[in-house]
Design a protein that fits this description.
Number of domains: 3
Strand order of the largest sheet: 3-2-4-1-5-6-7
Pfam families: MeaB
Keywords: Hydrolase
CATH topology of the largest domain: Rossmann fold
Strand content: 5-15%
GO molecular function, one term: GTPase activity
CATH architecture of the largest domain: 3-Layer(aba) Sandwich
Enzyme class: hydrolase
Helix content: 40-55%
Number of strands: 7
Bound molecules: guanosine-5'-diphosphate
Distance between the termini: 40 Å
Order of helices and strands: HHHEHEHHEHEHEHHEHEHHHH
Shape: globular
Family: Belongs to the SIMIBI class G3E GTPase family. ArgK/MeaB subfamily.
Amino acid sequence: MDLIAELPKGNRRALARAITLVESTRAQDRDAASELMAQLPHDRQALRIGLSGTPGVGKSTFIESFGLHLTAQGLRVAVLAVDPSSARSGGSILGDKTRMEQLSRDPNAFIRPSPSQTQLGGVARRTREVVRLCEAAGFDVVLIETVGVGQSETMVADISDVFALLMAPAGGDELQGVKRGIMEIADLVIVNKADGDLKAAATRTCADYAGALRLLRKRSGDPVGFPKASMVSALTAHGLDEVWADIKALRDFRQQSGFWQTRRQDQDQRWFDQELHFGLLELLHSDPKSARIVEEAREAIHQGTRTPVRAAAQILASFRKT
Ligand code: GDP
């Protein structure tokens, strides 16, 4: 299949094949993937929305109803997952189609589970490429989902235009548990499960987050009122239109202020840095001679005969000569 011809037509099979290609670790696939990436049309941009939340908060329920809300408006929606746990467990707990049954049957939606982390630099590195592929295939919105664990949120925020944090209704004490760093990168804090018995707690929690967000410094380039806390029920689809309106308002304002473009340019610079960083490491490890020297250095450090700094400096010096 001619991927470069088929992708812009929105051919989903072509998209799936292209993703498999960029996720492959075989050297010849990497070359083909890099060639494909270079040929992608640059005039297509999707709205990239990052979404994070702990397991059980309702991410799949939210993505299912939010995704359907968007496809009902004629938008094409891709859902990708960045799952830091899939490396260890081997299985994926995100982006699983069975979690979003209706959306996965929607012809205007495309759901891709998290790739397993077999490569240096891991999942984020490939996810950036997959986002670009989805854009080239004409998707209007790319939702990138992650679990609130470790570095994955920062990673996803660095791939998205808008980053949303999904929260559950909670007591006041639990609010303290949210890491400040995460609040600082969130554009939207969405309190889910605002229905039935949980509605009162959700209203309180939402007010608490709104208060906490007001204490943070407003980002330049953002409209008044952001970052914002809001309430939804993914189960009843209540509040989804407001979330979508907020995201669009943020997009429009940022595009006009120039923040949007700057953010993407900065992200591209970091993407380049990471490619270079991990590419160099791969080069070092894939060359048998260098790989052997690295192993020797490890052993020497283990024996205490060489310091880590010295060992690294020696390898870099020998690498420079080759
Ligand atoms: P995930 O692990 O973050 O993907 O969470 P799920 O989407 O699997 O949801 C976890 C549980 O919360 C499920 O039992 C859902 O039915 C429930 N849930 C999700 N959204 C809502 C909601 O808006 N209201 C209520 N009451 N329950 C919800």
